[in-house]
Amino acid sequence: MNGEETNNDQKTPLLPIHSTNMLGILAWIFTWWLSEAxxxxxxxxxxxxxxxxxxxxxxxxxxxxxxxxxIALVLGSFILALAVxxxxxxxxxxxxxxxxxxxxxxxxxxxxxGICGTTFFVxxxxxxxxxxxxxxxxxxxxxxxxxxxxxSQPECSDQLVTNFCKxxxxxxxxxxxxxxxxxxxxxxxxxxxxGLWKSYFPQEKPxxxxxxxxxxxxxxxxxxxxxxxxxxxLYCRKGSSRxxxxxxxxxxxxxxxxxxxxxxxxxxMVLTVFSILIVLWMTRSITDDIPGWxxxxxxxxxxGTVSVMMATLLFIIPNKKQPGEKLMxxxxxxxLPWNIILLLGAGFAIADGIRSSGLADILTKxxxxxxxxxYLAIAPAVCLISAILTEFITSNNATTTVMVPLLIQIxxxxxxxxxxxxxxxxxxxxxAFLLPTSTPSNVxxxxxxxxxxxxMIQTGLPLKVAGIAALSFLMPTLAPIVFGTxxxxxxxxxYLRWCG
Length: 500
Fold this sequence. Notes:
By secondary structure, this protein is an all-alpha fold. Helices cover 66% and strands 1% of the residues.
């Protein structure tokens, strides 16, 4: 029946066969993701056989989603992150910054700012889960000096000390999520957004590392200081300094730093390589008047190109510890998070499948009410919907994968620039602040035993509201300057065909 059937009673067309198949595949994949009946990396590879077998797309087309410049960007940055972890650079950085912010006498809000600020900075350059994993031992190491974590002496517990412990743990997990919003490498959601933009709008200027940074960093900075204010208000009460001073001071931090010793040649080289990579990311594409170094290669080189290139240097430069030994070897890369890489590939494949099967057109009709809503109201509405989905239904990566293609369709209906909806949908998916299960970073903090669900809700709810408010303000003000959302698209025939 030409791919669709008709209900004789209601005289309305049912789903086309490919759309029905795609809907079933989505249900299959998300059931496995949520139930973990099959390991997540294996589930992430299922589009490689489901899509060809059910007529969604060819095997080559699906496989292409699992390796492009965005995936290369992730691979290179993960290898560099492993080098940072291997040489304990993150710990040295954390102790130095915390020592700087400790204050004399001890200033709890300032110390909290130092710990959270360090986590924020680290998560800008590596995945926020990796940043949380790195920073949590640093944070708990500092808290070990406090009596509230000494299980053998529960009578020494002090409510002010306990509250500060909660503030530190909450600050680390939330700062990692917020810092990840700043850069493309900070979280998979940003990478999915960039990949979808390139896939749907190949004729448009790609979202480069520097372009995203000029929008993401101010947004993240506003939300970060909102987090700090909320934590200070809730957990750093009057008298905290006196309660903490007896157990935590600069001498402890200095002893920790002295144990690390002076920086070795290997550490300096890893930092140098990482710094050069950041400069290359920031300068590949700057402005129309100052095109950046990418113009020398006629747009052929991407952020993933330099990410892998600089990571390769780690396997060439000697570490000067043992003859012939390099800064990195492949054995040190066994901890590469292939699950995240496969999840990103699955996200790109699912987005392509939703689009090519026609399911996006059908699902968009369920959100038709948004097309009649003023943009000043729709931006916070889209952000809120994504934020709710990522808390209660699925992961932020999966939420972005499903939401963004639908928002592109709605943007076409509203005759607005797609990024005006795509960005709130993607950023909103990162506001996973309420539940331990919302994101792996939350799980890491929850397993320390210092926080409870009520603590996360008490802090996460006002933080979520602050995030939505900040995004709703910056989208109509900063986004036109950075992304040119006030200018028309160079709409291609493919885009017109996808949007019907």
